[in-house]
Amino acid sequence: MAESTLANNTRDFWSEVRKASSNHNVPVKVIDDVYGDEEISNYFGSKYEDLYSSVSYSHIEMSDVVSTINDRIEKLDMSHFTELTVENVITAVNQVKFGKKN
To answer: Would you give the distance in Å from CA 63 to the centre of its chain?
Structure first.
């Protein structure tokens, strides 16, 4: 592969890359001293369950957060926003300068 690159022969280089990467699809047999497909699957399931249940969740707290957000949305002054129309969008898109991060 290095020879193809040095000789600037891109066709040989990419064929070598495909050969090298396509022949190594052997399934894993052991992970952390756990053997077999089903046991490995259960092992990962247990790890994810531990991960996702490690953060506490309070329904009361979540309800308070939702209420606070809803209260703030209701108090917003939306009078300065204009109606969103197709024409507004076309005008805004036409004002965007190509290549700029507007």
So the answer is: 27
